[in-house]
Here is the input.
Amino acid sequence: MLFLSFWYLPLISAFTWLGMLLAMFCVWEVEGHPHYPSMGATQKIAYISDIGAQGLKPLFIAGCCVTTIFLDLSFAAERWLRHTGALARNSGKAEKILSGISIAFALVGTAGLILLSIFDTLRHPHLHDGFLLLFIAGYILSAIFICAEYQRLGVHYRQHKILRVSFWMKLMFIIFESILAIAFISCNFSSQYQPAAVLEWIIALVFTFYVLTFFVDLLPAVRHKHSNKGNRHGGKYDGTHEEAGVEIGHTTNGDAGMQRLHANGDANLGANAYTNGMPHYMNGGAANKPVAANF
Here is the structure.
């Protein structure tokens, strides 16, 4: 059923995260840019964590939990679909190991984001900063290992352009998020709170883009499901599936060839039987000479 498709998972994650960020920013704007207790004396732009440590803390915790849970489910769905062949299968153990390490670091990032929302910057500043680094490092390392997996998949499945597209999208995330993270850490620890706050908001928005790359990864499985449904109902698979259509396309073409072979055999058998029966029909069985058919 369509509503059970896996590609919904990263969309729920991304839109939850983006909606939470917009809600928090709008509240800060509507309240007239208040100076929260967790902000520095000269700080004018609030961190996401500053807003999340106040009245919107329940929203902050809920948003972080929903975002990371559905993102982790996207990782699990991608692994499962490759295992079942709905997406391009891993061609060796190395790719499966890379995928497993990627999922492990994603779980580390998940723990970091959920814990930083609970241990807020106002009451637990040191723990909060540590969990923030855990969150950023966890997902960047996760992206590095999944990029390595996709690079190997792209070599084995050169016909699947979607793998190259996803690889480059995730590589862009790694490069930009790493640069932004280094700049953020540098500004934050040198007490340059204004640029640090801006960089934190940008890092959060770029993370939305990373989550959406899994929508690109999981979408081809929908085409795979529809092609299987078409095969069960007598439809043809055209072999243009970008991710998981190679073996299925060959099987379908083979079935079609066998159907044509049986059809030709049945036609020849019927024609021969009818032709051989003509002499007896026309001559009443009295003559044994064959009579030429008129077709």
In short: Residues 229-263, 265-295 have pLDDT under 50 and may be disordered. The two ends are 51 Å apart (CA to CA). The chain is about 75% helix and 0% strand. The CA atoms of residues 202 and 290 lie 89 Å apart.
